[in-house]
Design a protein that fits this description.
Blueprint: H1 2-17, E1 30-33, E2 36-40, H2 41-48, E3 51-55, E4 60-65, E5 68-73, E6 78-81, E7 84-87, E8 93-95, E9 98-102, H3 103-113, H4 126-129, E10 135-140, H5 157-174, E11 178-181, H6 191-201, E12 205-212, E13 222-227, H7 233-243, H8 258-290, E14 295-301, H9 304-307, E15 313-320, H10 324-330, H11 333-361
Parallel strand pairs: 10-11, 10-12, 12-15, 13-14
Antiparallel strand pairs: 1-2, 2-9, 3-4, 4-5, 5-6, 6-7, 8-9, 13-15
Helix pairs in contact: 5-11, 7-8, 8-11
Length: 362
């Protein structure tokens, strides 16, 4: 008893001297699921002053505080933090009727996010100031009786491509861009027909959405293709000169000369390849900044939709359905939306660069 009194006295003296600081603990209910500590979400939000909304039908939770926003869904380990995709080590769960989140979510997201400085307002849309990108062809790869690649759990490439393409089209339209879709439903469109739609559209750029696959299941990542540098532009130009119209101001003088038309098309194809490479880089950079995914990079290829397009054209591979983790993520609507937004941002950056180049020329 005497020893206990001495111990208490020592602690009391140290506390008064400032050597011992007793931190108040947050009274947030916890539980254990498969050995992992989880926090009850609603009391956690109340303790942090976070506004929350829970849709019992979709089981989607939206957390808001100031300019910050977190979207999460019960049963998923993929969340959106200020529209940035984050993969948790454990999924969001329901425990005794209450939504619970893993301890790492609280420590690495909640406790960190709401201590940061407010984000700056978003920049004005590049499409508002750029007059170069007014119409875009958005191509959803495969479709109909052509499912494309199929993941181990049955995810079909054609469905992923169409969903992301439609999301991208909506985002572009909201910025005032005219969008032409090669397909907006689950139907088969031959490659030649896609090229025809593109070349007749009068669009400024072409963006084709695809999902990747590889026999090596560990392969994963995001990549963008442009028309192969090894392609003979002079040969392409000659073929195009025989059948394609030059919708160029001041090009009437060449209308009677096949040789001159071929020379002009050769120059156009060289310019388009350079612009396609820049657009591909912008998209990769945007996805790398906005999402926690591996960026494989920019590559060239001889895909028909690329070599047949008479405008800057890129083919985007959004991920590998043959990879278990990427297939799982591509099934998630939040994740597909984030991909569409990141591609949109890349196109927007490209449009802004074009506007700056035009401004420098004046």
């Amino acid at each position: 008893m005497c020893k206990r009194l001495v111990f208490i006295q020592v602690i009391f003296i140290l506390f008064l001297a400032g050597c011992v600081t007793l931190q108040p603990k947050e009274s947030i209910p916890t539980c254990k699921i498969n050995g992992v500590t989880y926090y009850s979400l609603i009391p956690l939000c109340e303790a942090k002053g976070i506004n929350w909304q829970y849709d019992t039908f979709t089981r989607v939770v939206v957390l808001r505080k100031g300019t910050d926003r977190i979207n999460l869904k019960v049963g998923d380990d993929l969340i959106l933090v200020n529209q940035r995709a984050v993969l948790l080590s454990r999924p969001i769960e329901i425990y005794e009727g209450a939504v619970v989140v893993p301890a790492k979510f609280k420590e690495q997201i909640i406790d960190v996010l709401f201590r940061k400085e407010p984000v700056l307002p978003q920049k004005i849309s590049s499409f508002v100031i750029s007059k170069k990108i007014r119409k875009i062809v958005v191509d959803a790869g495969h479709g109909g009786n052509d499912p494309g690649a199929i993941g181990r759990t049955g995810l079909r490439e054609k469905d992923v491509n169409l969903d992301i393409a439609k999301r991208l089209a909506l985002l572009l339209k909201s910025e005032g861009v005219n969008v032409v879709m090669t397909r907006s439903t689950d139907r088969f469109i031959p490659l030649g027909a896609r090229v025809g739609i593109t070349n007749k559209s009068g669009a400024d750029i072409f963006v084709s959405i695809h999902s990747n696959a590889n026999r090596t299941r560990s392969m994963n990542g995001f990549e963008v293709y442009y028309v192969a540098s090894s392609l003979n532009d002079a040969k392409r130009a000659l073929v195009t000169a025989k059948e394609g119209n030059l919708n160029l101001e001041g090009s009437l003088f060449a209308s009677r000369s096949l040789e001159l038309r071929a020379m002009l098309w050769d120059m156009i194809y060289a310019y388009d390849r350079a612009e396609s490479i820049q657009l591909a880089k912008n998209i990769c950079r945007s996805v790398g900044s906005n999402m926690n995914v591996k960026i494989i990079g920019v590559k060239d290829a001889r895909y028909e939709v690329l070599r047949g397009s008479r405008i800057p054209a890129v083919l985007v591979e959004v991920g590998f359905v043959s990879n278990y983790n990427e297939e799982r993520m591509l099934k998630n609507g939040f994740y597909r939306q984030k991909i569409a937004e990141s591609i949109m941002d890349g196109i927007s950056d490209y449009a802004q660069e074009l506007a700056m180049v035009e401004a420098d020329r004046r």
